[in-house]
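Please, structure for the following, as tokens.
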Amino acid sequence: MCNVVNWVREAVFAASLLFCALGSPGQSVANPGAQLPRSAGLAGVSVPQRAEAPAKVPDQLVIIDTDVGDDVDDAFAIALAMQSPEVRVLGITTAWGDTKLRARLAERFLQETERTDIPVAVGVQTHPGQGKVSFFSQASYARRGPEKSWPDAVDFLLRQIREHPGEITLIAIGPETNLGAAIDRDAATFRRLKRVVLMGGSVYRGYDGFAYPTVAPHAQPEWNILCDVDAARKSDCVGRVVVRDASRFHAD
């Protein structure tokens, strides 16, 4: 039961980040009680005018940078993004640990959800040190995914920014290693993102109740930041940060 509650908390964390990233779609909602405007018709009879169709809101372009394969939260966030009609996912980039195996997992996930139109790119592979273990709980699922050659995540990210300057929201729900590498390679292009939204940090609560190596009931280094502090510090053009406190709630 404890694991289920923890997974739900993590999923809520990811969902809150996604909704924060998307913000308001910019489309007004009609008042269901409002009357249609009227105009003078034949013989001076007042007739309702036809309501104009609301203008289509442009798709919000997003790239999701993820360490999918550990807890359920990243898979939940990707699924939510794919089901959001106002969002167009330009790609998924994998982060932290065995990023090639994570790419296989993402590719299989997209195949089984019939969204092979979304490209996958492989992020910077890392070798976690002490206290930074990669909890790849879904590795067996990933190994049954297709083996192929994927583009480099940093190349993919920078290319997409150049093609859509000022239009892309980068949603980072894993350690920020790929973001730091992209900034190192071409900071000027990276800053042409519309915004960056990070899932990371804590203000009041730590990882109490979770099977992680750092557990405390008070604020402590959050996983995504702790894994690559240098990369997180480089991401100084972040628009929004959703801290893990956003997922704290009573499940009973």
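The first helix runs from residue 2 to 22. The chain has a mean pLDDT of 76.
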